[in-house]
Design goal:
The chain is built from 13 helices and eight strands. It has helices spanning 23-37, 42-46, 87-98, 143-154, 156-172, 182-194, 205-214, 218-233, 242-249, 253-263, 268-284, 304-313, 332-360, and strands at 2-3, 9-10, 50-54, 74-80, 102-105, 197-200, 294-300, 323-324. Helix 5 (156-172) packs parallel to helix 13 (332-360), helix 7 (205-214) runs antiparallel to helix 11 and helix 11 (268-284) crosses helix 12 (304-313). It is globular, with a radius of gyration of 20 Å.
Length: 361
């Protein structure tokens, strides 16, 4: 299982898709005939769930790339819903039909455990997880080990936001009768069967959340934390009908990101646009896909427009070092002092929240 390296600064090289960009119309001509030849369902193509982007659409290979680097001949992208029952079956069918060299999944190293989680996560039995599994999960019952890993990777503030989002996501999707991330487990299993390399294609969630926090003012941070706490501790049921219950049960991380970004517009860049570009980089320019004939990406359907735009609009400017890293303009002394204060406050808050979880979940 491959993952990309880390680097030091974030200066997104590509703008987000313009309002007029439609990834389906931009890729339909390159997808229809190839999908039919591979005996793939037409419904996936016509609905925009499956697209193909051949290398000729990528744009120029940048001069800074080593001479022995070759971008994939074609990239296929399958858009999924993380709680939909048929997404796993679609993933299995597409991978078995295309038999790619690499399968790129919308996960990072700290979330790779989702691919190995049990197929049942109904909250029963002695192995019951602390939280219902979701894209922000902290490792279930191994809470403190996951906390330590998250602090090491992204810092205390990112950990605090991740924990709040994990609890909030767990609560709003508590009506789901399906485990989270079945399509990722299907991707792992089929990749092993066909001998494809599995690539972790998403930016580390700790860096994404750290970037998100830095984009907010102190007032916005306070309002965000207060609103999440209110959502977590609320005892009011917000859905009453089977239709509403089903809708609440299938809230995806992308939809949650979109709702947050509506209230806090500065979150759009770190939560969505930068990650779209990172996923595109993983699909066509990472070392893991060098020389590949065919690469298939398994990503949330909400990322499709941004990822396809990044793939075909890049003119050689899409660089890993511009998409991942941690920045700080503080001196070492001020950083230490602020870190000590922050660690104490966040540590106490996390312990209080952990104790609260024992009583409300």
């Amino acid at each position: 299982m491959a993952a990309g390296p880390t680097a030091a600064s974030i200066r997104p090289p590509l703008p987000p898709p313009p309002p007029c960009f439609d990834y389906r119309s931009a890729s339909l001509a390159d997808t229809r005939a190839a999908a039919a030849a591979a005996d793939l369902p037409a419904r996936l193509v016509e609905s925009g769930a499956l697209v193909r982007v051949p290398r000729r659409r990528f744009g120029p290979v940048p001069a800074w790339r080593p001479p022995d680097f070759a971008e994939p001949e074609e990239v296929w992208i399958l858009g999924t819903s993380h709680l939909a029952a048929d997404s796993a079956a679609d993933v299995a069918r597409v991978l078995q039909a295309l038999r790619p060299d690499n399968v790129v999944v919308e996960l990072c190293r700290s979330r790779a455990g989702i691919m190995y989680a049990p197929d049942s996560d109904d909250g029963s039995g002695p192995g019951e997880p602390l939280l219902k599994s979701n894209m922000f999960s902290l490792g279930g019952a191994k809470f403190f080990g996951a906390v330590n890993r998250s602090i090491n990777l992204g810092g205390q503030s990112a950990l605090a936001l991740r924990l709040l989002l994990a609890v909030f996501s767990s609560k709003i999707s508590s009506g789901a009768n399906r485990p989270f991330g079945e399509e990722f487990r299907a991707a792992r299993k089929v990749s092993e069967d066909i001998g494809a390399q599995l690539v972790l294609g998403d930016r580390p969630i700790e860096i994404t959340l750290e970037r998100a926090l830095k984009s907010l003012s102190w007032d916005e941070k306070t309002r965000l934390v207060v609103s999440l706490f209110r959502g977590i501790t609320s005892t009011t049921r917000t859905v009453d009908t089977p239709q509403e219950d089903e809708k609440a049960a299938t809230v995806s991380p992308y939809e949650l990101y979109n709702k947050l970004s509506f209230s806090y517009p500065s979150l759009l860049q770190p939560l969505i646009h930068e990650r779209d570009m990172f996923l595109a980089w993983s699909l066509k320019r990472s070392k893991a896909v060098n020389g590949s004939k065919r690469v298939v990406g398994v990503i949330g359907k909400g990322h499709m427009n941004g990822v396809v735009h990044a793939l075909i609009s890049d003119q050689g400017d899409l660089r890993f070092r511009d998409l991942v890293g941690r920045e700080s303009s503080e001196t070492w002394a001020s950083s230490i002092v602020k870190g000590l204060i922050r660690d104490t406050v966040i540590g106490v808050a996390l312990w209080a929240l952990y104790e609260l979880l024992q009583t409300v979940l």
